[in-house]
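Hi Prof. W.,

I finally got the Glycosyltransferase family 2 protein prediction working! I wasn't sure whether to trim anything, so I left the full sequence exactly as given:
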Amino acid sequence: MLYLTADFFPVFIPLGIIGFYRYLIFVIKLIAWIVYEPIIPSADPVYVPERDVTIVVPTIDAGEEFVEAAESWLACNPKEIIIVTEESMYGPLQELATKINPDKIRVLTVAKANKRLQMVQGIRHTNTDILVFADDDAIWKPQTLNYILACFEDESIGGVGTSQTVKSVGKRQTMWEVLAGFRLTVRNIEVAASTHIDGGVCCISGRTATYRTVILKDPDFQEKFTNDLWRGKYPLNSGDDKFLTRWMVSHGWNTYMQVCSEAELLSTFKTDWRFIKQVLRWTRNTWRSDFRSLFVERHLWFKHPFVTYTMLDKFVNPLTLLSGPVSVIALCFTAYHLPSWDIILSYVVWLLATRIVKLSPHLLRRPQDIIHVPAFLLFNFYFAFMKIYALFTLNVTGWGTRQGVGNELAADIERNAIAASIDETSQTTIEIPPEVAIRDQFIAKLTTEDMMVPDRAKAHIIVPAVPIIPLEAAPVMIA
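And this is what came out:
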């Protein structure tokens, strides 16, 4: 090696330092992951699923995956499951709810598909101490809720997440699903390490995220959550889990990640190239959220220094990753005393060996996936370019994999729906029965609680206050 790099010490010494530092950090994460311990449920828990847990599921789908997921949630015995969807999907989802468990599953709607608006609708109808957001394909294990609730015995904890793994869509996982599994393995190690080292986490994944309901009932939270803009003008509807995680940190709540087999959830991923579009959306969300955490809100610097370092490391990761192949290419053109193929082969073997070490927890569980390690290596280089591209396209805030979803501010959708309902009911005649006795014979005010017009039992449209109306003037026109 010294002979190989003798002519390039000024270049390779800095690169060697970078490489040493990166693998040192990985070893630290690996050790922290090994010594990390999940919180075990107590024999006499403060919170129990059948009394204290509501599951809120924002969805626009009613496929077979939803049925399997719902059955896994019910096996954990929550008090209620609230499905929130767009109006056109009310019928199919209500039919599924009736088929699965009509006593525990309730279906609500919003005017237009928008995940944040759907989440807030679920929050408003939750009356338990603990609220769980779950994706419609998140499959739980029977002890998942018990392990999640164990964390809330600590009154300082406001949000809890879990480890994750891939559920195969078909009989065998595609290359894209295996790549997703590799990424989840790396993520599980990172969140366990950060939880053990300083108690923080970059993001409580929205696939299954649990919070104290009182935090989410805060009107200030709901207002900011549904009016979230990037640079003051680009609506943010994805990245809800990033927003929630930042809210925990900025409002003094601690978080915890239950990384254990009992709480591990299974989730499906795209089985084709659309997985790349998912990753691009997640990458943009990460850039935007990390910028806010580090340079706008800045609570992380002192509360969670290791998480702060992790975020900063992600900023330079594309450059450090690409520095390797750039150096090898330069060496191939200038190191005439060694064949180029020797240099390239040595570099590739080194990369494969180190990646196998990093992925060893996954490969011990699924050794057949070792054939996809070269694809993972290539994907990482592609991902480096993707991160740079995402950085320069942060104004693109749509979902990418769902056409027409997520391009409108959640609060605007709700305001437009209310305005439309007011216009629709402006010519509605309400007959006031003469036998109804009202003090002073006047309706002084119709508040939100006094009058609500149901829309086929699917949602409620709030009618604003109207001027004083004499009782004798029945029938009355609402203007």
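The longest strand covers residues 80-86. Does that look reasonable to you?

Thanks,
D.
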